[in-house]
Amino acid sequence: MKVTEVPAIAGAFLFEPTPFTDERGFFCRTFDADVARSAGIDPDAFVQDSLSRSVRGVVRGMHLRSGEGEAKLVRCSHGRIFDVVVDLRPGSPTYLRRATFELSGDTQATLYVPAGCAHGFQALTDTADTSYRIDREHDPSEDVTIAFDDPELAVPWPLPVTLTSERDRKAPGLAEVLRTLEVKAP
């Protein structure tokens, strides 16, 4: 498994497995505790696995948690997604920078999103399953949502947005969120 630092977001990593492919399909390891440790990530810190299924054009995000934040490993297990991370940690050297990725079920690459970064994605295929491994139990009182179409974020969503949640549609812009957000620096 290859690990690459994401230059645009301090503390973010891309984990790319080496699949074994034959006439049956493929097999690959999508998580390896020793590889995570080698990148400075505590594999034992993760407490929850979640899965979302989205249809083409759906946008989920931009989401993060206030306070201690929430680190996560994100992987598209089926289909393809356009994934976005924005660094909202005031003390970070990559504060307010954005990084985008295409994650797919074909590659099974996993993105490590550090706590204090906003995250969202758009489904690029008819069905896209996205897996999350999260390092804190969910506390809805800490949920923060930023408008996915905020001009200040200027996320270049590759498809027309077909559907979002009500929460995402009604989310405030980045400037408003930054005025009230409490995120601890790395």
Automatic annotation (TrEMBL):
CDD domains in UniProt: cupin_RmlC
Pfam family, one: dTDP_sugar_isom
InterPro entries in alphabetical order: RmlC-like, RmlC-like_jellyroll, RmlC_Cupin_sf
EC identifiers of the protein: 5.1.3.13
Keyword rRNA-binding: no
SUPFAM superfamilies the record matches: RmlC-like cupins
Cross-referenced Gene3D superfamilies: Jelly Rolls
Keyword Isomerase included in the entry's annotation: yes
Catalytic activity: dTDP-4-dehydro-6-deoxy-alpha-D-glucose = dTDP-4-dehydro-beta-L-rhamnose
Record keywords, A-Z: Isomerase
Pathway(s) it belongs to: Carbohydrate biosynthesis; dTDP-L-rhamnose biosynthesis
NCBIfam families: rmlC
Subunit structure, interactors included: Homodimer.
Similarity comment: Belongs to the dTDP-4-dehydrorhamnose 3,5-epimerase family.
Protein role: Catalyzes the epimerization of the C3' and C5'positions of dTDP-6-deoxy-D-xylo-4-hexulose, forming dTDP-6-deoxy-L-lyxo-4-hexulose.
Protein name, as recorded: dTDP-4-dehydrorhamnose 3,5-epimerase
